[in-house]
Amino acid sequence: MIRYARSHNKQTADIWTMFFLMLFPLSSLLGQAIECDKDAPMSRGASWSPDGRYIVFDSNRDRKQEIYIMKADGSDVKRLTFTDKKNYLPTISPNGKQILFMSYSDTLQAVYTMNIDGSDLRRITDTRHKYGDPAWSPDGKRIVVHSNRDSEAEEIYTLKPDGADLKRLTNNEAVDFVPRWSPDGKWIAFNSLRDGNREIYIMRPDGSEQTNITKDPLSNMVHNWSPDSKYIIFYAFAIKSSQLANKGVEKSLRMPLVRQTAELYVVDIETGQRIQLTHDFYWDQSPVFSPDGKKILFESCRSGNRETYVMNRDGSGITRLTFSDN
pTM, whole model, 2 decimals? Predict the structure, then answer.
């Protein structure tokens, strides 16, 4: 049974947040957070190999969005794909032999697999519908994706790595997307808009027991699980006061009253209790635990362009790994 604990203080804070946003539109209050330079090279969508020795990611450092692999310390970067499409969000299979990723073109949004060295590239989804955000099951026998193949709204499906035996798990009028399988194989986490905003849900691999575990008026974006399957690490958009950041700063250089940022959190799937990991004015997104649970990969705009960083599980020791503009 999934339980969700919510304190009286949290409820009060939520009420005041919503009341504030009703009185003051974001467009009139939000300044530019320290956001990514959209025209600069970027590296994003990083994930670990099962043994923790390698990291795969996508980057446009060569003027095309392609898949790369590097050692866990950021060295020995190698490009794996050379296509006419935009390739995103690579993940390495549990046996460490294959890479799963999504690919875009003007007419296609599909899921592909390839060997860890970039060979044997194969499209595993059809060309008539959109498929995205693929992830492996912990035993490598199935893949979970979202697709619009049966409705206008994106829904969650699983299929075999060769594209066979497609099974639909969610069925509602809202969008369900970004599915992620838990390491113990018992749950699939995903984002849903069924409550009017982005919430994090979990369900059984057969689609049963769909449960909202965030229940937050602001947007929450699932990204991955802790190795023990007890926590989900995610990022959430927050409205943050600039009062402290402006202290002692020349008036002409001060930030606006409030601004929107993206911060990293973990949430306990049993209690709903969350812990905030980053506390700054940067856009921190797409966090992923290392296989041993001691490190976290994430992407951030703290350097001006979107790059891949690593930090300790408690949010300390932030280190930049990629340098796309070099």
Answer: 0.83
